[in-house]
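Review box. Two proteins, two foldings.
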Amino acid sequence: MAHVKAKKYLGQHFLRDTDVARRIVESLPLDDASCVLEIGPGMGVLTRFLIQIPNIRLKAIEIDTESVNYLRFHYPQLDLLEGDFLKISPDKIFPEKRDVKYTIIGNFPYNISSQIFFNVLDNRDSIPHVVCMIQKEVAERMAAKSGSKTYGILSVLMQAFYSIDYLFTVHEHVFDPPPKVKSAVIRLTRNDIEHIQCDEQLFKTVVKTAFNQRRKTMRNSLKPLVPKESPMYNNPLFDKRPEQLDVQTFVELTNMVATALQSIKKQINVQPYEKK
């Protein structure tokens, strides 16, 4: 069967270098009888090595019908789902196993990599590891530590629940068609934090609001959430910029915001006493 034609609207850039593919697969942390989900196998450059690993339960999901037909022809033994990873219910991935934990691997399309990571966050208790190739700049942002210029929203949200290792850089010439940017392989490993010690939804809002105006101090960037008159801003923490705050400090800051919002709510609900 002929090769699959890369489709721009799907962000497809097929990896041609089998040595790179082997290195990606060898980066998987596996234990006996692990479940592995490959996202977007394309023409199976990773699949060919994954199916050789003993004692794993391998499944793949692919949205491109042409790629699905190619994979079914060349890898008939592969358990393949045709569909969109971002839309499939997690319990449909390994329906035969209850409360299953599965490792994710894949060469993620650049245009949806952040959405995939947010999906991983939503299902983090089922996903102990992720090994993936993404755009180099995104990989650097995710692995960046506080104080770095590349540290941002994705860094904080992902590092709250995963440790992130930048493994190696992949150059453009090993793809067909070659992308305009370099790629990188990273590995995510679930940490021991089950729940962060604050309201998680508010935490996400605080992080996103802060970095949306990253050049400003926290005192100025968080004004859309808490009015500038709030005594909360007397804390010297708000003199800092968002890239100076690590994950734990963002947790503490979220609790400050929650307290300030609760105080404002109580003030609004107080009815003035009227003399008759």
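Next protein.
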Amino acid sequence: MKKNLKGICRLGIVPVRSGSNDGSEMVTQLLFGDHYSVVEISDDEKWTKVKIESDQYEGWIDSKQHTDISEEYFNHLNNSEFKIATDIIATILYKKRLIQIVIGSVLPISSNEIFEVYEQYAFNGSSKNIGDRQGFEFLKQIIKPYMNAPYLWGGKTPFGIDCSGLTQQIYKLCGYRLYRDAAQQYNQGDKVDSLEEAIPGDLAFFKNEKEQITHVGILMEDQNIIHASGFVRKDKLDENGIFNMEFSTYTHKLAGLKRILKT
């Protein structure tokens, strides 16, 4: 295997699996524009293990869904201000192929004209600068397309998403970078000492019987929380945890709160 291979997702959605076979669980997804380093290639070369640059998450993709890029372009992706798609679904004409992409996809649009020519694209949809940080009012609007999305382990789209995928994507659209798993996200941001001190937009984390962080959601106004549990839903939050209003019971035990949004 050649050293320092780099790649980029040039399909709408690509499953990233825990192992090098179709039967392995999906642990996350690549969306159009996500770039990565190649960690390993399976002996039969049918599978490629990648490390996603945005969150350093690792997993296996089908080698047929891998697109090589140069190290120069990889570095350009790391150091340039690109656009992020804000429509639930948009289209991009990439090298004469029309591709449906989802909200949160990174677009090959930057101020560097050389790389714009290199990419050969045409985009039809709404977008914003990926590094343009937004506050809670923007968050309230951008979370709407995800409401009622079905829970999907490893999912990152309005058509299937898990709890930490939801928080990661919402904050990505707001201009902030979160890690992939709830336990990793718990180590980010500034600690909020109590629910009384929390403000809308803060992250709320929840633990299991072994005191492990297993769930995360976004605090909204009036002590509501939006989280992915069965589907992306709104429930009440108090010092004990999430109170499911549909079944009149607590479903998740509160572990702590973190502040990410700075505006």
